[in-house]
């Protein structure tokens, strides 16, 4: 059944919602942009979820993406980085609104009072992780391509990335955060970033059947989907022992130095990837992940909100993020001019300011998060 767009939908019906049976269904419908989140989409999602949270008819929520071929096929590729570049370059206050409201949405999903079920088919990156990692049930498919690739654009894994990556087993969180490595279903489940596997061609049937359930509570609705998912067919591919050996080292320079001194293809390839990332942000991201291990969700999101302000506005003329987006998505020369240019040239004095909040606690834009 095709969902009916609601009045709260973002422009061009980018967010569809409907209630069938006892379930609220959401479809992200911006397929040409791989469902990348705009500010309007963030606001639509927040309105819909707040309304359903107090609606006695809705016992659970399910969310999916869409592709050019219809529902499913892609979940969400992240935030709209072209908007971020334009707004950041022009000092547009909507950039601040975007991150404040997106992080509040992430917090709501992690603390949602009803089961929230994410069908994480296809691309699940950046902001897509932010609207799925807080789900009661996270379902992946053989098409899932999951990553937090922000260091490639001179940013850090936000949308509570520090929170959920730091809680991966061992030092997998540091590895995923620094490299931006893409993983599939088996690695997502093994590293506690997904709960179950469902074949892509079975999703529509489960989605539709979920709307036909009746006389049941939210937990039973989530269990209905969980019972139809399983462990991924493939074995995890990530080199867990090597990841823990290298990404437990004290700083980014030590990690890259050790990888380059090793004699394995995996180590060489990983070092080469890190050499392409923003040297400054590698050091910042490692600090973020390690601080986040001892933080609750609300405090971690407040830390991220401060990091964003530093990334876009508090290094005048030297924003690694604007430069990274320029090289990747605007000029597409894939030759970012990082400052500093080498991992070895980053000092603790360059990293420390990122973790100084731009606001007193009472005036923080996310002060209301509990």
From TrEMBL:
CDD domains: crotonase-like
Matching Gene3D superfamilies: 2-enoyl-CoA Hydratase, Chain A, domain 1
Domain Enoyl-CoA hydratase/isomerase: from-to ranges: 23-355
Keywords on record: Hydrolase, Isomerase
The protein's name: Enoyl-CoA hydratase/isomerase
Record GO terms (molecular function): 3-hydroxyisobutyryl-CoA hydrolase activity; isomerase activity
GO biological process terms on file: L-valine catabolic process
Species, as recorded: Verminephrobacter eiseniae (strain EF01-2)
